[in-house]
Structure formats: structure tokens, C-alpha cells
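P.,

For your records, the input lines for the assembly:
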Amino acid sequence: MNGMAKIDLDGLTKDYGGVIANDQLSFRVESGEIFGYLGPNGAGKSTTIRMLLGLLKPTGGTARVLGADIRDEKSLIEAKKRIGYLPAHLGFDDGVTGERVLEYHAGMKGDSRLHELLEIFTPPIERPVREYSTGNRRMLGLIQAFMHDPELVIMDEPTSGLDPLKQEEFNEFIRAERDRGTTIFFSSHVLSEVRRVCDRVGIIRQGRLVELEAVETLLTRSGKRVRIHAADEVIPQLSALDGVVDESTFPGGVQFIYTGEINRLLRELARYDVHDIDIKEPPLEDVFIHYYGERTEEKSNQWNPNNE
Amino acid sequence: MSETARYEVERRIRGSIVLTAAISLYSAFIVWYFTVLEGVNTEEVFEELPPAMVDAFGIESLSTIEGFLGAQIFNFVWLLGLGLYFAYMGGGIIASEIESERIDVLLSFPISRSQLFLEKFASILFPILVVNTVGGVAIYGLVLAVDESIDLTHLLLAHVLSIPYLLVCAGIGGVFSVAVNRTSVAEKGAVGVVFVLYLIESIVGGADEYDWIQYLSPTQYYEPTPVLIDGTFEFIDSAILLVTLLGLLLLGQIIFSRRDL
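C-alpha cells returned:
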């Protein structure tokens, strides 16, 4: 498998007659990387994942997963022995114990890493799944996704509902998995999440691939949302800084997206009398609106912060 | 037995025990009631009923234990009650997995859709066998307990011949189960179809012009009362049921394999 893409989309399309959930997607996920599949809710991420696993049939194009054409059930079944999957909605039978769920999974695909994983993740496996908290369900989901030591793990919104601390543990875990050679493909609608952990990111919006970036590039492009409380006379000068877009003032302050170099912003700010400052990540949809415009009718690979 | 079938059978154990216990209790009541009715001329009681109704409930000779069990237990419980119950159960096998989104995980396993469908369907055989085996032993024991007797071979046949019939009912449910996304729709649809076929068969039995319609109903091919009374049955009936079962399973697999989930 070395040297070969673990996932290779070739014009993958899903047309629901009127709604194109996935529009000619083409990209590759290389061996041994963590690939983030980023997009707002409803962008078509789950559709792609469900096509990759053979749950949905493409209406155009195709994809290969571990070399298997997704339209060929037989070869995809062979490939599934080496794939781990964590769905967005974790469906387990409520009436059985976590242990029985894992036993069933073991019988279907193997459990060579089960004991090791049960030392990292500790859901109460002797109890019925019905009694599990969201966190315990997630842990059970992660165990089943990795228990058979798969080459490729596909995860749909794996961190939704995790608190920041758990999220960091999760990031640690998948980095370690990557380091032992597992390829990881996961979807998310949270930019900060993918940029902390992913080697590469594909961005999907309204069914189309709008960017395919290395994390570093994305990092510098996405900008920060800066909210400053300062004396009124300072505000126009702050708004005039290079790299400031989408500024809006409010009584006693200004808010904008800063896309320039962060140290420069800090140096500039030091020159003024600033009362309070809050710097955080802009919501993904805001980032999209800034970089790709309000509508994404055309695939825009050219980044232009002033294209509004 | 493979993993999925084993897992599904385990989940059906409790339900099978409850079902069997309930049917055994009902059978005990019926057998006891037969002893109460002894001396009453039951034939006369039913003479007042319209012939279509006598036909519908398979009432043949209520004064013998065989005829009484055939009408009260086999026609009521096995033919109608269990037929509907297993149609309902069949309706749940895939639709419930789709509705709860468990299907995502199930199909991430290295297993084909056809195999998943067949193994889940096969697990229904477990309650069918338990209710026939334990229920059959219970009925035989109860009959002996009230100092009556029943031909063991005939009783055995009545149970064995019910298996293809019940599987066809479950198969109708299985087809509904892969065709719709909602469990309740699949279950009600399957129950509705089996019940309507049962009614149609009962009603058109008397009308010559449309009597071919009765052959559409699976209930046409399992008649427990004559089996209990004198052991008469047609091999071809069971063969028709088994062929129908294969057809339903094939149809279910085709629908399931072709659809988006």
C-alpha cells in the first residue's frame, strides 16, 4: 500500500435530483497523514463519508478506499477489514453491555488492540449501553474504530460534544495513532480543531471542494477575530491597520478580522491605550464569507480578502 | 452460526421466553376449558354461526380435543397470532437499524448487505423454533394432564408445518423492512398485509368466481386442524411456502443492495 493514496476521490458526485450534495469532488488522502475534512454543517461532509463506506451510491465519478473502488461491493468489503469507522451518530444497541458490543465487533473484524485501548479509554463496559453518558459512548466508539488495528480510520465529527480537555486528549491520541502509521480522515466544522491536529485540510462548502491546503497555509489565511475596547479616538487608527477586514464598531470599541501577522498587531496595539482585548477564532462560516464571497458558485482558488 | 446471527439470537432470547410462556399459559387455559365444556354439545352452539365464520376460524369438530385445539390454539394463535407477530418482527430487522442509524456501524463491518439481511432474518428462526418446541411439549403435557390423548405424530406435524408458514410471514416483514426507513411503517405494513391476506382467504373461500384470490394468502397453505385430526396435509403446500420464502428473501436482498442508506 505504500506510496498509494489511502483515499482517492475522482469526480465523486452525489446528486439528489435538484440538490447536489457532493459536486465532482477530487482529492487524495495520503498514507500516514491526518486529513481534516472541514465544512459548515450541511456542506456535504457526511455524504462523502457515507459514499466512501458504500452506504450511499455515487451518481457520478467514484473513489478508491485502500485501493478498492467504492462501487464494487466485494472489493470494498475486503478493504473494510482494514478500515475503522466512527460515525457522527453512535448507534449502539441500548439493551446490551459495552462488553457485548465489543465482542460482536471483535467477531466481525478482529480485536488485536482491544486490551491496549481499554487502558486508554475506560467506558464502563460491564454496564448496558443505555446507561452511558455521551462521553462514554464516544469512548466506546473510538475503541471499536481502532480495535482491529486498521490502516485507515474514518471519523465523522469525532469531537462534537467533547469538552476542550477531552478534545485535547483526543488530539493526543490521534497524533500517536498517526505516528504509528495509521492514516486518519476526519470531518469537522470547527476550524481550530482541524488546525491543531491535521496535516492537511480539505474544505467543502455547498458540496464543492473550495480549498485543499496544508494546515500552515490555512492558519495564516483564516485570521483572528479581534475585539478591542479602547478610547474612541483610537478606533479609526486601529481600523486602518493592514490586514483588517470586516470591521464594525460598537460603543467603546471595534471588532474586526485580522489576517496579518500577529506580532505586528500586538506591536501596533501597544502604541495605543487599549482597555480590553479579546482575540479568538472566527466562526467557519465567517471565514468562508470573507475568503470565498457570500456565494460560492465558482470554485475559487484565489485568495483575496477584498473580494467582497 | 455466524457472528451477526448469534448476536441477534441472543437479543431475541428474552422475547422468545416471554412469548412461549404466554402461549403455554393460554394453551393451559384452553385445555382446561375443553374439560369444562365436556358434555355440552358444542357442535350445536356453532351451528348458529354463519358458514363463512366457521370456515374462517377453521372450526371443524369442537367436541374432540384435536378439533378444539385446532380451532382455539392453532387457528387462533399459530395461524393468526404468530403469523402477525413474526410479520411484525420481520418488519423490524433492517428498518430499525436504519431508523436508529446503527446501520452505519453494521455496514462498516466487512460483510455484504445480503449477508447482513439473511443473518438478521435467520435469527427469527430462533423464536419460531422455541415457541414450537416448548409450546408443543407444553400442549402435549397439558392434554395428558387432563386425561385426554392426542396423536403425537399429528401434533408434531402441526408444529413442523407451521415453520414454513411463519417464515413466509416473517419474510413479508423482511421485504418491508428493507424498503422503508421507519420501523413502525415496516412493522405495520407487514402486519397489515398478512392480516388482509388472511381475511381475503377467509372471505373468498366460498365465492367460486374469485376463489383464485385465496391462493395469494400464505394462510391458504397451512391448515392445522385437519393435520391434528387425522394427519392429512399436502406436501405441495409446504413446498409453495418454501419457494415463496426464497422469493421474498431474494427480493429483500435485491432491494437492500440497491438502495441508499
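Two observations worth noting. Chain A touches chain B through 30 residues (CB under 8 Å). Residues 295-308 of chain A have pLDDT under 50 and may be disordered.

Regards
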